[in-house]
Structure formats: C-alpha cells, structure tokens
Please model this.
Amino acid sequence: MTFGESVSTCLRKYVDFNGRASRSEYWWFFLFCVLAYLGALILDTSTNGSVLFVFALLGLFLPITAAAVRRLHDTGKSGAWWFITLVPYVGGIILLVLLAQPGQPFDNRYGPSAGVLQMPSAPTPAPPLPEAPPPMSPRLDDRGTPQALD
Model:
C-alpha cells in the first residue's frame, strides 16, 4: 500500500475499529500523523500559539487509534491491547513491538488477511483430465470378422 492510499484509507475509516490493517497501511499513516504534528508544531511556534497542534492532536487521535486497533487485529491480538500504553514507561514499548509484528497471512476472527499475499483457505482442486478418445472399432474383413492390426 502506498503513502496516499494509506492516508485515504485510514481517514475514510476514521472511527472503524473493525477489520484488519496491514503493516504498510498503519506505518504510512503513522508517518503522516507525525508529519502533520510536526507541521502544526512548526506553524504554532512561528505564530507563538498552540491552536494548530491541539487541533492536529484532537483531529488525528481517533484515526490513529482505530488504525492501531485494526493493526493489532491483523496480528491476531485483541484491540484491548492498545490500553497497554497506559502502563508507564514500558506500555508504549510493548505496543510498538506488537504493532511491528507481521500480520497473520490467513483469515482470522477479525476478517480476511490485510496483506498482499494470502494463503488459500483450502487447496485448489486439480484441473479435470481431458476425456479419453472414443475406442476405435476393429477393422473387419468382407465376412465381418475382425482382422489383426498391423
């Protein structure tokens, strides 16, 4: 998933905590949020205010949280693991490790695989064999008895 696709997907799923998000979808959106926060912070420091940064924090809090929950779903974890960030010092590190794990390449209870490669749920059947040609009738002589083939 590209940067633009990721941003549009995560903003479209603004408060959608269901489903799964691939690693690229989450981390591209995370980069977008960091850049938005930095841009708002730079503009606020140049104007001696803090309004833009607060709006950026409030405006992007739900989308980044929803994307993180969907990312946790992709790894097979419950979205409740997001609350580990409330544990001082180590909670954020634990969540970072959980978000960086590869997603499950198969369908799980949160939905179909979010990644590009997906394992098939069942083996695909072999293609049918071509039909055998009809049997050849034996060569008959004038009296109607079969002759040996040369």
